[in-house]
Design brief:
The protein is of the alpha/beta class. 36% of the residues lie in helices and 21% in strands. The chain contains 7 helices and 7 strands; from the N terminus they run ααβββββαβαβααα.
């Protein structure tokens, strides 16, 4: 069994299946906003992308997830070692997520993206702007105002932000 599972992972079969399921059911997704979050998962038996994460007091892996507005998971990025924060390789990993949506026939331009203050960075805001995504990111109080923001307006909708709970609940299950 493991031989076949491993072979299907390596040749991209699982990804193809997921993209087909996503493409054929995209009409059922609530894309009024999408939710982005990372999840540190304990890796008890090791793995390819594992490192010690002090907050969890164990070896973990960190993965970024996208969910629709109802909490249905729609994409996940390649796992990273758990010692890294959510913004680690954000250009590459968020690009993976967006490409997965595009491959499933989901247009990303004009989507509202909801995420927590852990993603509050100039680089990530520019990535979203470049892709035509409206980012609703809570301000990270640890960031220096001068270093992060120019004088342009930063969109933030508190009511929309409350919808983030759907991805928190999906990751907690």
């Amino acid at each position: 069994m493991y031989y076949h599972f491993s072979k299907w992972v390596k040749n991209g079969s699982w990804k193809k299946v997921w993209l087909n399921v996503l493409a054929s059911n995209r009409c059922f997704l609530d894309l009024s906003s999408i939710q982005l979050d990372g999840s540190h998962t304990p890796a008890k038996r090791g793995g390819e992308a594992v490192s010690y994460q002090g907050r969890k007091s164990s070896e973990t892996t960190n993965t970024l997830y996208l969910a629709d507005n109802q909490g249905q998971m729609i994409a996940c990025a390649s796992p990273q070692a758990g010692g890294h924060h959510d913004l680690y390789k954000i250009n590459e990993l968020f690009g993976e997520l967006c490409q997965m949506l595009k491959n499933a026939g989901i247009n990303i331009k004009g989507l509202f993206l909801n995420t927590d203050s852990g993603f509050d960075s100039k680089e990530f805001r520019q990535i979203c702007r470049h892709k035509g995504i409206e980012a609703n990111i809570d301000t990270n109080s640890r960031n220096s105002k001068n270093e992060l923001y120019d004088d342009s307006y930063q969109y933030f909708d508190e009511k929309l932000y409350k919808r983030r709970s759907v991805i928190e609940q999906a990751n907690a299950c």
